[in-house]
Amino acid sequence: MNQSRPAVIIDDTTLRDGEQSSGVAFSAEEKLQIARQLAAIGVPELEIGIPAMGDEEREVMRAITGLGLPLSTLAWCRMHEADLAAAAGTGVDMVDLSISVSDQQIEHKLRRDRRWVLRQVDTMVRRAVAQGYAVCVGCEDASRADLDFLVRVGETAANAGARRLRFADTVGILEPSAVQRAFGRLRAALDLELEMHAHDDFGLATANTLAAVAAGATHINTTVNGLGERAGNAPLEECALALKHLHGIDTGIDTRGLPALSRLVEEASGRAVAWQKSIVGAGVFTHEAGIHVDGLLKDSRNYQGLDPLEVGKQHQLVLGKHSGGRMLREAYRELNIELLDWQVPALLSQVRVLVTATKRSPLPDELMDLYMAIDALASEAAVDAPGLGGFACHTAQPIAL
């Protein structure tokens, strides 16, 4: 267990909620590799599984806790005796005892009432504490719960010995101002650690997580690449860097290790990371537009919100439909060719035709072929009309390569 903990604790749930993505199933070795890499970049807490799933799940959980990683581990359990019993022997430090707290789920999922929920919280938290666990009470569907009742759940949990209350936006319906109101109320009423568990159904998981921290959350749930049920959870990479740069909160994560971790989870999950996925996508530090390339070449800070070096990357300048003369010249300099002024517009025209057809940047051989073709046409023009003194091809018709 890590003794030096930052002000906001990342409790990563890639190995639990991340694996609950439809069709995702990590092997035992993949779970161990992910756990090791999360620990290596400084994640202080991991939710590592669901003991009630069976012997195989518990065996992997024991293997993870047996690694002796410098972090705390949690097991996710429903709030009843069988799940708590299943956690025995897994070696976890904390149990998240989850229970529905919205009237919708209390009545139509549990077929119970609020009084039963409060009794169950009191009974099961006391039982878990007596068995030596630190306890987090997971409030499922908290975003649709009555806030007064949620406070009562928190008070009951605290009186029974719980350490933490998890606020789950289970169906991903919140927006930042609503999150701030809810956490402001909970922070004022409860002397508990408060954890935000955000889902991304409306693309607001990261924003909602930041809002929760601003209103008093001490812990946040994340997953690598935003993996998770339906639209996924708040991405680890986004939350760590946004908290650092937008809120001045250092979570202790070594962000240079995020790309490798992302690739590991991408491969293990079978879920491809989008090319433009923030922080870890292949294209997020790639620039084509002429005005951007010109500005970056003058001073990278002109078009840089996040220094790619923080995640072990660098800016990539690519030639494309929206490139200007400066990028074209740079591309040809890499081929040891210094373009003449008349060649720039002619080649830009042909590059635009090529990339529109191929949907990618030109390859070096293709650039060389275009150059040779333009040069050949210029030579022909000089023979046919020697008095022109230069050839400028502005046509958008493709040159046969």
Backbone structural class: alpha/beta
Q: CA-to-CA gap between the ends?
A: 63 Å
Strand content: 5-15%
Order of helices and strands: EHEHEHEHHEHEHEHEHHEHEHHH
Query: Sheet bearing the most strands, described?
Result: 8 strands, parallel, barrel
Please state how the strands of the largest beta sheet are arranged side by side.
1-2-3-4-5-6-7-8
Proportion of helical residues: 40-55%
> Radius of gyration in whole Å, from Cα?
28 Å
| Helical stretch tally | 14
Number of strands: 10
Low-confidence sequence ranges:
386-396
What do the pLDDT scores average to? 91
Silhouette: elongated
Any key phrases for this structure?
two-stranded parallel sheet; 14 helices; 10 strands; elongated
Structural account:
The protein is α/β, with parallel strands linked by helices. The protein has helices spanning 28-40, 55-65, 81-87, 103-108, 114-130, 147-160, 176-189, 205-214, 236-247, 258-269, 290-298, 325-333, 343-358, 364-384, and strands at residues 9-12, 45-49, 72-78, 94-100, 134-140, 164-169, 193-198, 219-222, 286-287, 316-317. The chain contains 14 helices and ten strands. The protein has an eight-stranded parallel beta barrel with strand order 1-2-3-4-5-6-7-8, surrounded by seven helices. Helix 8 (205-214) links the parallel strand 7 (193-198) and strand 8.
Task: Give a quick precis of the structure.
With 401 residues, the chain is of the alpha/beta class. It has helices at 28-40, 55-65, 81-87, 103-108, 114-130, 147-160, 176-189, 205-214, 236-247, 258-269, 290-298, 325-333, 343-358, 364-384, and strands at residues 9-12, 45-49, 72-78, 94-100, 134-140, 164-169, 193-198, 219-222, 286-287, 316-317.
